[in-house]
Automatic annotation (TrEMBL):
<dbReference type="Pfam" id="PF00300">
    <property type="entry name" value="His_Phos_1"/>
</dbReference>
<protein>
    <recommendedName>
        <fullName>phosphoglycerate mutase (2,3-diphosphoglycerate-dependent)</fullName>
        <ecNumber>5.4.2.11</ecNumber>
    </recommendedName>
</protein>
<dbReference type="InterPro" id="IPR005952">
    <property type="entry name" value="Phosphogly_mut1"/>
</dbReference>
<dbReference type="InterPro" id="IPR029033">
    <property type="entry name" value="His_PPase_superfam"/>
</dbReference>
<dbReference type="InterPro" id="IPR001345">
    <property type="entry name" value="PG/BPGM_mutase_AS"/>
</dbReference>
<dbReference type="InterPro" id="IPR013078">
    <property type="entry name" value="His_Pase_superF_clade-1"/>
</dbReference>
<keyword id="KW-0413">Isomerase</keyword>
<keyword id="KW-0324">Glycolysis</keyword>
<comment type="similarity">
    <text>Belongs to the phosphoglycerate mutase family. BPG-dependent PGAM subfamily.</text>
</comment>
Length: 234
């Protein structure tokens, strides 16, 4: 590979429901579907279509050779809107969002109220290694991504994935220490539809774009900064 990029899915109805639950002080996020089936919101559809207009204007030699999407509906739909008809569009379960186990659908307040012992475990183990019962740690998601990266083929590869993917690719490609990674994630928010990319420079990967959203605004959609439960509340 010479270039790799990742685009966060467009705003989902789950993102909207989480914002409502967190701001209202609720313990549970009101999402009827399982996480893998949550669809895009109307704003998320607009963001996907804006990405499609951006790619339509782009010279084909600048298109990714390979597109790989998380198997979740919100990422597949974003990829389809952005690059409909791309000849090599794949789906890989290793790109799925972090699984939260017993903490699924809980807000920050809900985790503290219902599983205070997990907050104690997280403080002792650290956020990178804390695995909720039935769920995954950040380290578990990293192992999935590391496996996927070994199998990717193509000069230019584009991933459609989740907020955590942007952070963990920096950890893998730029070798950020755990402490720096967590500080970076704590102080950053990846907008829906944002692009982060790296280019190869010899044996190193160099960050090229970080949370780039100009392509949305220039093509008729506004980015949304919705937090992800896999990053903030656990």
């Amino acid at each position: 590979m010479e270039w790799i990029g990742v685009i966060r899915h467009g705003e989902s109805l789950g993102n909207v429901a989480r914002e409502v639950a967190e701001s209202g002080g609720h313990e549970v996020i009101d999402i009827p579907e399982r996480d893998a089936d949550v669809p895009l919101s109307p704003a998320g559809v607009d963001q996907g279509r804006a990405l499609g207009r951006w790619f339509a204007e782009m010279p084909r030699e600048q298109w990714p050779d390979v597109v790989v999407a998380s198997p979740y509906r919100r990422t597949i739909d974003t990829a389809a809107l952005a690059l409909r008809g791309h000849p090599r569009m794949l789906v890989d379960e290793r790109l799925r969002d972090r699984e939260l186990g017993v903490l699924d659908l809980l807000t920050t307040h809900g985790v503290a109220a219902r599983y205070p012992e997990e907050l104690i475990r997280k403080r002792r183990l650290g956020k990178f290694y804390h695995r909720p019962p039935g769920g995954e740690s950040w380290a578990d998601v990293t192992l999935r991504l590391r496996s996927l990266m070994r199998d990717l083929e193509g000069r230019r590869v584009l991933l459609f994935a989740h907020e955590i993917t942007h952070f963990l690719l920096r950890y893998l490609l730029e070798h950020l220490p755990e402490k720096d990674l967590l500080a970076y994630a704590h102080n950053s928010l990846v907008p829906n539809g944002a692009l982060t990319s790296w280019r190869r420079d010899g044996d190193l990967w160099v960050l090229e774009e970080e949370f780039q959203v100009d392509q949305l605004r220039e093509h008729g959609a506004e980015p949304t900064e919705t937090e992800d439960a896999t990053i903030r509340s656990t």
